[in-house]
Amino acid sequence: MSVPAAALGPGPRGAKVRGTLFYVLLLVAVFIGFLLLGTLIVDVLRKGIGYLDPTLLTEPNSSNPENAGAGPAIRGTIYMMVLLLVMVVPVGVGTAVYLEEYADRDRWYNRLLELNIQNLAAVPSIVYGILGLAFLVRGLGLGRVLLAGALILTLLVLPTVIVASREAIRSVPDSIRQGAFALGATQWQVVSRQVLPAAIPGIATGSILALARAIGETAPLLLVGALTFVTTNPSLLGAFTALPIQIYQWIARPQDEFRLLAAAGIIVLLAILLTMNAFAIWLRNRYQRRW
Amino acid sequence: MEEMESASAAPAKIPGMDEKLLAERAEGRPYTSREVLFDVSSLNVRYSDVPALKNVSLQIYKNFVTAFIGPSGCGKSTFIRCFNRMNDLIPTASVEGTILYHGIDLYGNEVDPVEVRKRIGMVFQKPNPFPKSIYDNVAFGPRVLGWKKNLDDRVERALRHAALWDEVKNRLKASAYSLSGGQQQRLCIARCLAVEPDVLLMDEPASALDPISTTAIEDLMHDLKREYTIVIVTHNMQQAARVADMTAFFSVEVDEERDIRTGILVEYDETPTIFTNPSDKRTEDYVTGRFG
Amino acid sequence: MATQDTTVGAQPAPIRLRAEGRRWGEVAVKALLALCALVSVVTTLGIVLALLEPAIEFFREVSIVDFFSGDRWAPLFEPASFGVQPLLVGTFAVTFWACLVALPCGLGVAIFLSEYAHPRVRGILKPALEVLAGIPTVVFGFFALAFFTPLLQDLGLGVGTFNVLAAGLVMGVMLIPTVASISEDAMSAVPQDLRDGAYGLGATRLQVSTRIVVPAAISGIVASYVLAISRAVGETMIVLIAAGGIAQITFDPREPEQTMTAFIGATGLGDVPTGSIEYKTIFAVGLTLFVLTLAMNLVSIRLVRKFREVYE
Fold it and tell me: Any idea which architecture A54-287 has in CATH?
């Protein structure tokens, strides 16, 4: 039976219209996100550019917007990041190594461990603040100090570092481990001399991204007490403030100038984040091994 | 010395087999005595209660090349991995039976797998050099064993032994991945040799390589067997005929009801015998290409 | 056999296959690593303890029934009222508007990325989504208050300076990457054969996407929805900045409403004396929040596991 040429032509018009409409809808969905992102960046730049000057970076906060700066806040953020790095990377990588190389998956407690980590990753950040408030600030009597803030942020981003490290470790091919074992290496020798070195690029990238996330966290610090009128330099057991907290405090002021100041602070924050993310991506592209 | 049976008693021709070579090997056997290095008795291996290898008993002789041949799925790889306790790394594997090595049961309670692997090395089917330099690959074993002195000498000796030194002596710091497949495999062999083992286990060492590299590896085996005992798994019968002194033929037992395939040892004898005058019909069927 | 077999015995040097000592180093390393893993366990225990203890004390003074059935939240007033419903309504309201944006748009982005987009477009879109996901919530809060609310006012919608609508809609856009990435993961896991089979029968792309791929990936998509809702419920800064601090029950999004998280944040900022009833409200509300998000997270984790199992 021969098929008339028309049968192979374009289908019913209805289907075509529906298809196009759907495609347009999808584009709208995509566009909404882009639109907001673009508007946000433009708006922040426009509002904040006027206040972007050295005063912002060095001077402490003041009730006069002309003199106010985020110096202690920026320093506080940097100090916290350093503390964070020192605390979260060893514990996160250690946990990842335990789960990937040592733990027997069939044991119930190891599966519970994994579930626990997955759950912690989704706990609202303010709950970490409550944890800090109860145990560190009031409980241990540390008070609202830098160390408490750093500890809480460590716990907050720990699941992220664990997940990223596990990915990196898992991507090391098993043949490498087998080869090392076959030469008479112990498990720790295999892990420390072959697996971890090969996984370092992935771990580094993941850690930097986790750090970038921590920099922007505000909610937990509200409770653990980043006070907003700190003029002294941050110290481990001293009062502290952080950039996102400073930004929040400026936003909460009624005067318009403080809004603009907040925008300037946001520009600084976003610039720091952009640098960190770009560095992490560069690291990944430069050192990532294609197995 | 035994006389080779005349051609009239030989079974049907084996495809591709060089019968002249076999005859020469049979006549030119240089040994009158052989020393047992491994004594395997009633070895059974299971993966999660599914038997993979059943009741294997044989002896491996010192300074011989012993080949395990057989169709796929017959447990040859599982078996060879028993010799250096690599099956320990598979959580679902369980091994019963004994393997005596220098009189000590490898699976005894007091035996540490790490110590076993220092003396019994393994080369894998797909070359697996570490993501490090050529030098660091070979030096890894000695370093891990704590042999820090004379590292350069050890590396050179191992690379010479593996017939790779001349090709890499000027670029020891280059990445191991810059080598060709055949060179990488010889690097893996050098890596094993650097820890001065007794035994070299090779699981299909040339199957991922081109014919020229394969020949290089086979020649290497002839050299190495003077100092080491070599056990190889191969699916290439011609290769077994070329390199092995003893050959063990494995096959598969199928349990139709439970759909389980278990490996068994069918026949183990001197290579010429296996290929020209096997005792078991299954062996004969396999080597003449009627199945498998 | 004419050959002689002897066994290679213990000579010349005795072969020792025992380890020197019991390899204590290895045991120590494993213990240390397990200790690291315990940190996460301790964190969870800490959270539960931190919440439970003061919350239990709180519920000795304020009955649970009053807490959940009361419709006036005024812990600092005389007389104090501890009905949590306004906070729950506030949370629900913001979440509603956020999901109105995030769930359809996120799914749309995921379908686009998975079924329609040219690889080069994907190469731009995916990083852009990551950028969106990386923006701190305080920045979104600022945007909602300083740009979006005036915009809505200019559009004549009559929203107050603090209102639920701006906070909710901006939060929705913030959540698009969450929905999109997990949904897209789930859709990518659907084997190409299923699509090919449908295309081979003459189906259009629209039909394949909506009738084949989405249903096949449904557990992952639902997981992303549940996770987005959980995040919306737990989000603090956007609502603290833009949704206002008045705890009231209203369904008009142009009004300000305080959410559970905003209440905790605002109270925590102030200097409430330890042990006071106001102090304990932080924990009572926190416990409610935690239980709510925990339930949603467990459901989401279950669903993700389901879709991973089916195709991997």
Answer: Orthogonal Bundle (1.10)
Which residue in B has a C-alpha nearest to residue C6's C-alpha?
Answer: B35
Cβ of A27 under 8 Å from any chain C Cβ?
Answer: yes
Q: Is the pTM of this model over 0.90?
A: no
C247 within 8 A of C263, measured Cβ to Cβ: yes
Q: What percent of chain C has pLDDT over 70?
A: 92
The string of pLDDT tens digits covering residues A198-240 is 999 999 999 999 999 999 999 999 888 766 666 666 677 777 8
Please tell me if residue C13 touches chain B, with a CB cutoff of 8 Å: no
Helices (H), chain C: 24-61, 64-69, 85-111, 119-134, 137-143, 149-154, 164-188, 192-200, 205-207, 214-216, 218-234, 237-242, 260-269, 277-311
The answer, for B145 touching chain A at a CB cutoff of 8 Å, is yes
* C128 and C32 part of one domain: no
DSSP state at residue B7: G
Which domain covers residue C56, as residue numbers? 24-61
Q: In chain B, which residues have their Cβ closer than 8 Å to the Cβ of C10?
A: 102-103
Q: How confident is the model at residue B27, as a pLDDT?
A: 60
Domain residue ranges in chain B: 13-27+35-287
Average pLDDT (A182-203) is 94
CB contact residues (below 8 A), chain C span 253-292, against chain A: 261, 264-265, 268-269, 274, 282-283, 286, 289-290
Q: Closest residue of A to C53, CA-based?
A: A134
- Determine, yes or no, domain membership for C297: yes
Q: For chain C, report the end-to-end CA distance as a whole number of angstroms.
A: 55
**Is residue C12 situated within a structural domain?**
no
Nearest to C48 by CA among A119, A71, B150, A17: A119
pLDDT in tens, C56-94: 989 888 888 888 888 888 887 777 788 888 999 999 999
**Above 0.85 for ipTM, yes or no?**
yes
Residue A173 corresponds to which tokens in the numbers above? 């091919």
